[in-house]
Design brief:
The protein has a single domain, classed as 3-Layer(aba) Sandwich (Rossmann fold), CATH 3.40.50.720. Helix content is 50%, strand content 15%. The chain contains nine helices and seven strands, in the order E-H-E-H-E-H-E-H-E-H-H-E-H-H-H-E. The protein has a seven-stranded parallel sheet, with helices on both faces. Strand 1, helix 1 and strand 2 form a beta-alpha-beta unit. 46% of the residues are buried. Bound molecules: nicotinamide-adenine-dinucleotide (NAD). Nicotinamide-adenine-dinucleotide binds next to helix 1, strand 2 and helix 7.
Length: 248
Amino acid sequence: MLTRLDDKVALVTGGARGIGREISLELARLGTKLAVNYRSSSAEAESLVEEIKQIGSECQIIQADVSKKDQARGLVQQVLDHYGQLDILVNNAGITKDKTLKKLTDDDWEDVINTNLNSVYYTVSAALPNMLERQHGRIINISSFVGQAGNFGQSNYAASKGGIIAFTKSAAQEVAKNNITINAIAPGFTETDMLSQVPENIREQILSKIPMRRFGKPNEIARAVVFLAADGDYITGQQINVNGGVYM
Ligand code: NAD
């Protein structure tokens, strides 16, 4: 059984749907007080609050676009203003804008890098002072196996997710002595809205390349995240693959 997190506060970016929603729910089940960020899914965020209340935990929802530095840093500040502390930061928000390099525009590049990678720098740099003061922190960044292996038509996404892994390893070295761990989770293909954008025939091709012959479930990613938050005290700077074997 995982260690309870009753006195802990967690922020999950993009936490209202998909993998982020499952992470929020799993953290709530361990007693964490939550701040759930959403960009535009307000109905999903409202329904999540109700679900979390039924679990018996507290949840604040905060609208912010984490690709914008002021909003991302303001998001962390709102959590600190509300709860007075931040123990667990899960950088989950992410987008894809898949195109081959021939067709990729500057906007496609910048939107994905700003949302997936720069947001991680913004929130981590905003959260660290409080974590350093309290000599405690668990930061979990959601990367992707695409950041490790690369993928056709995903140069922007792969760069953002590979960047997260490199950032994680570097930042983890700087704060390890302060009892702050920073790790990356690298999911494989997982059944969410992001995967449903992929055409059916391509999904079939993908399945044939996954050794476990099935897509991951959002909760399977969430359980790895909460393990790091609750019991990963001596794990830092790692990339944990939850991918059905698609990249080993
Ligand atoms: P999703 O599209 O269901 O969820 C993404 C979440 O990020 C949404 O809640 C969305 O509102 C939020 N978001 C996007 N841009 C934002 C912004 N600028 N500010 C705030 N929130 C923003 O997709 P998902 O599959 O649940 O993705 C969650 C994470 O997992 C992403 O980082 C994604 O790259 C990663 N991932 C997903 C898969 C997969 O196959 N689904 C595989 C590997 C990694």
